[in-house]
Amino acid sequence: MKIIAVANVEQQQEILEKKINAGAEIIFVKNLNEIIDSDDYDALLMLDENTDLSAPEVLTAKPVMINSVIETLEGFPGNFCRINGWSGFLKREVWEVAAGSNKEAFSKIFDILGWKVLFVKDEPGLVAARVIAMIINEAYFALGGQVSSVKDIDLAMQLGTNYPQGPFEWCKRIGVENIFKLLSKLTEMNKRYLVAPELKEQFSLLSR
After folding, report:
1. Higher-pLDDT residue of 197, 30
2. Which pTM was predicted?
3. What is the pLDDT of residues 156-197, one digit of tens each?
4. Would you state the pLDDT for residue 102?
5. 60 vs 35: CA distance, rounded Å
6. Is 165 left (phi over 0), alpha (psi -120 to 50) or beta?
7. pLDDT at residue 50 above 90?
8. What 3-state DSSP class applies to 119?
9. C-alpha distances in angstroms, 186 versus 70, 87, 114, 117?
10. What is the mean pLDDT of residues 10-14?
11. Most buried residue among 121, 123, 167, 197 by CB atoms closer than 10 A?
12. CB count, 10 Å around CB of 29?
């Protein structure tokens, strides 16, 4: 099985940290122009969020896996599935996949790759990103309430809960914009995801 992956350098490195079965091959390209006239592949892995997913080269009958943490599969063909391509998530042992009606086809692909997956509902944030975004949001609420400093909150969460990173470290790696946009989307569904004022301010400062 040959999979064409459109990915940036960091995404490539994370993928390469995962073991791939002998029967599968992943070929990295910078953009779809490199394969525009080729049909010699079995699936597309669209990790770079700058890729135009409405381009004719993407709208193939073959399976397409897209990095879409916030937006759902609504409006996409049935041969598309969603994964979490945020920084740090691709090298995880288990990938979360929202596959719509084509679960069987994608299950076969991941079996050939030798990768473990968990099929989840097609909802904004999937599962892990939603949980981590909420942890980060609560940390910003604590910071705004002057409970503690950024450094001490990170340290407390690492030592007290054995998290690999503190919430502010996570936010920096994933990106304030990603966390803000996910929480804003989730707030439309449930007000318990309301963005902390300190996080909103941080996003505004970075957006100027």
Report:
1. 197
2. 0.91
3. 999 888 888 899 999 999 999 999 999 999 999 999 999 999
4. 85
5. 12
6. beta
7. no
8. strand
9. 9, 20, 32, 24
10. 95
11. 167
12. 14
What is the rounded CA–CA span in Å between residue 184 and residue 142? Answer: 19
Residue reference for tokens 């946009």: 181
Using DSSP's 3-state secondary structure scheme, residue 136 falls into helix
Q: How many other C-beta atoms are found inside a 10 Å radius of the C-beta of residue 83? A: 23
CA dihedral 26, 32, 36, 41 (to 10 degrees): 20
**Widest CA span in the chain:** 58
Spell out where 7-148 has E strands. Answer: 25-29, 43-46, 64-67, 80-83, 94-97, 116-119
Picking from 135, 125, 111, the residue whose alpha carbon sits closest to that of residue 182 is 125
Residue-averaged pLDDT of the chain: 92
The CA distance from 97 to 79, in Å, is 13
The identity of residue 34, as a single letter, is E
**Which residue carries 């963005």 as its tokens?**
195
* 3-class DSSP state of 178: helix
Mean pLDDT along residues 67-71: 96
- CA–CA dist 149, 99 (Å, integer): 40
